[in-house]
Each structure stands twice: as C-alpha cells, then as structure tokens.
Amino acid sequence: ASVEKFCAELGLGYRSETLPATASEQEVVEAVRTLNSDSEVSGILPLRPFPPQISDSVVIASISPDKDADCFHPVNMGRLTLGEPTFPPATPAACLELLERYLRSEGKEVAEALEGAEVCVVGHSNTVGKPLAVMLLNRNATVTVTHVYTSNRGNLAKHTTVADYLVVATGVPHLIGADLVKEGVVVLDVGINRVVVCSKCGTLNRSKKNPCRTCGADLAEAEAKTVGDVDFEAVSAKAAAITPVPGGVGAVTNMMLARNVLRAARLQLGWQQRRA
What we know:
The protein is an alpha/beta fold.
C-alpha cells in the first residue's frame, strides 16, 4: 500500500500482480513473462521472499533486463560490476545520492572527495553491501567490506574506525556504537529494525513475547520503536554527518526506484540511451 501511495504521489502508474502462496514456480515465471511483453509496464519489482517451492534466481532471471527496476537480473548486475550503464539497485543508489549531496553541500567536488577515500561497508548482502561496494569502487574509493565473520574474529573495529565514510546494512540493531567510529566520519545507516526497549535496563529486544535478554524483565508493556544498525545518539556525537532511522536512506530509496522506472520507460520508448 505504501508503494502504491508513493507512486500515486509521483503520477506513476502502479499495479500489483498477486499470486497465491501455493503458486508453482512456472506460474510465477509465466506471470513475469506476461509483464515483460506488456508495453504498458515499464518496470518490474518482485517482492521477496518467495515461498519455498519458488527459486529466487529462476524468477529474477525471467525478468526482462530492460524492465528490471532494482538491478536484480544477472545481466544488470554484470553491467554494474563492469562499470557499464545500467539501472542501479535502489538502496545503494540512495546511499550514493545522499553521500554526493552531502559532499556538495560541504563545497566538495564529489569525484575528488571519493577518490582513494576509505569507505567501509558493513554487511555483504546481494541487495546492498555487494552492489554498493562495486559502485564505490567504480568511483575509485578504497572499499573495505565487513560482515558477520569479520565480527566473529573480533576485527570489525579495525576496519570501521579508519573509515572516512561508513555504510551499515546488517539488520542488527545498534551494531555500531561510538567506539566503532572515528571523529568526523560520515555515516549512512541502511538498517531498519523494529525493537522493544526494556524500561528497566534500556536493552533492545526483538520481541515482547520473551523476557529482556539482559535483565529478565517482563516486556509486555515495553515501548516498541524503529531503530537503525547504528546507535544514532552515541555516534552523532562523533560523526560529521549521519542519516536517521526512520527518514534517512529508506526515504530516498523509493525515489531511486522511481527514477529507474522512468529511465526504463524512456529507454523502451527510444527517448534516451541506457546510462548509469
């Protein structure tokens, strides 16, 4: 519903093709192929996860690369990796859009500011971490990608504390505190986590159903709120700039998705050439 409302505000046509949870993989692929051949459809965005009987890779491969609104298709991901023009994935594109606008607001030349800069991406998902690292490399940044196995070895701080720019996309509430960043860092928090705050000790918990994982207090009446992967209040004291959650990267992601659909429509109509 929120996507439909957002599209309506932009004057962008939207329709939802909903199949039953019992649909076969072939039925989903056929539905996608129907959209591929529909001249009124400019962009396709599959909503995941799929039921267990349906393969992500099979469905994504069935989408026309020219209608792949969020750079899921292997062809578009390959173009991205090679630095060729394509539709960039929306969330990584939102991160770069925010970063570039911040740099310009500081009077800096974007290309010069990113060339050789230390950028740490925390999280290596196929939707955010990996493509964002590629996009930053294409801008000649010095990119380090960390993940859960980096943390397991106790090496996370070694990488995050030297970063000029830090992007966090892990789905772990308040993973990054003030002790994991340096003074003057620019932080982009991609995480969106719904948590329950213990009124007794302040610990963030995932659910009200169980006692607080720290002090054992009952959480039935505890406050629920949305937080990022970064402890905003703690890190704000050291950061030159930081995105909030909610209202930060997520808000811009929808705009990047809409931009991709607009570019796809123009490309399909022959109004412009493919570009990054």
